[in-house]
Amino acid sequence: MIASVKRELLVRHLEAWAPAALHRARRVIYMHGFADADQGASAEAAARVLAEQSDFVRGRELSMLLVGDDVKPVSERLAKIPELAALNVHAVSGGTGEMLAVALTAAGAQRVPLLGYLDAASASEPPSPATVRALTAGKPAEVLLALAPGVSVDDYREGWPLFTAVELATGDEPGELLAFATMSGKSLEGFKETLWAVDEFAGVRYRDPGDPERHLIDISLSPHPGPLRREILAHLGRVGSATVTELRTFALTETVYRAADVTRVLHTLADSGTVTRQPPGGRLGGDVVIGLP
C-alpha cells in the first residue's frame, strides 16, 4: 500500500511539473533513480505521464533518464509499450549512487529544469547526500526521495533552499520517509497540496517527523491539526515570537502541513488565549506577530 501512495504522489507531481517545466524551457529532464525497484512499476507510471505531454513537447526536448543497478529490463519493457514510443529514454546501469551524477553530466542536465525521483526505501543502503545534491545542477531542480525507516532525512537538506518530509506509516512502528526538496516555493506549496489530495489507501497514514508524540494523521483534505498545533507552540517556545508569514513558512518546510493550515490553527490558538497576537484585532495578515502569553 505504501508503494501505491508513493506512486500516486509521483504521478500527480509529474502531471503538474512536466507542463510547467516545458512551458519554461526548451530542454527538460526527468531522472528516475533506483529505476529497477518495484519491477519498474514506478518508472512505467512516470513514463506514461511524460508521454502524455505531446502537446507541450513540440519544438522542445523532454528526456527521461533511468539509473539503477540493472535497468536494461526496465528500458526494454518501456520500449515495448506503443504509447511510449515517442518518449526519449536513456538507461544507465551500474548503481544509482555511482552513476547518477555521471548520467546527469552526460545528458547535459546543468541549468535545465530537472526533477529527480529516488526510491531508495528498499535499497541495500541509502544514497549519499552528495548523490542527491548532484540533482541541484538543474535550474530549477527538485527531488522526491524515499528512504527506509530510521534513516535521517536531515542529512539531505544541504544544497536545497526548501525541504520537507513526511513519514508514511501503517502502525506504531517507524514507516518509510518521503522527502521533497526544491528551489521553488510555488512547487513546495503544490507538493503539499498533492500530499493531502492523494487517494486514501487502507492502512496508510502520515506522521510528521517533527511531532514528538508521533501522532498518526489520516490522509484528508482537512488533516487533523493536533501535530501542527504542538509544533507551532514548540517553535514559538524556541524563537519567542514570529509573524504569521514566518509561521506559514515554518509549516511548509518543517512540518507535513500546508501554509493554509497555519491560519486555521492560529485562529483557534488566539481565540483560546493560548497565543497572543499583535495587533490584537483585525485580520490575521502575514505581518501579525504571534507570541506566547
The best one-word shape is: elongated
Main sheet characteristics: 9 strands, mixed
The CATH class of the largest domain turns out to be Alpha Beta
Question: For the CA atoms, what is the radius of gyration?
Answer: 20 Å
The share of residues in extended strands comes to: 15-25%
Q: What number is the mean pLDDT? A: 94
Q: How are strands sequenced across the largest beta sheet?
A: 3-2-1-4-5-7-6-8-9
Q: How many β-strands, per DSSP?
A: 12
Residue runs with pLDDT of under 50 for 5 or more positions: none
List the helices and strands and how they pair.
Blueprint: H1 2-24, E1 27-33, H2 41-51, H3 54-57, E2 61-68, H4 72-79, E3 88-93, H5 96-106, E4 114-119, H6 129-133, E5 141-147, E6 162-169, E7 176-182, H7 185-197, E8 205-207, E9 216-217, H8 226-239, E10 241-243, H9 244-254, H10 259-271, E11 276-278, E12 289-291
Parallel strand pairs: 1-2, 1-4, 2-3, 4-5
Antiparallel strand pairs: 5-7, 6-7, 6-8, 8-9, 10-12, 11-12
Tell me what you see in this structure:
The chain has 2 domains: 2-217, 3-Layer(aba) Sandwich (Rossmann fold), CATH 3.40.50; 226-291, Winged helix-like DNA-binding domain superfamily/Winged helix DNA-binding domain (Arc Repressor Mutant, subunit A, Orthogonal Bundle), CATH 1.10.10. Helices cover 39% and strands 22% of the residues. It contains 10 helices and 12 strands. It has helices at residues 2-24, 41-51, 54-57, 72-79, 96-106, 129-133, 185-197, 226-239, 244-254, 259-271, and strands at residues 27-33, 61-68, 88-93, 114-119, 141-147, 162-169, 176-182, 205-207, 216-217, 241-243, 276-278, 289-291. A 9-stranded mixed sheet has the order 3-2-1-4-5-7-6-8-9, with helices on both faces. The longest helix has 23 residues, at 2-24.
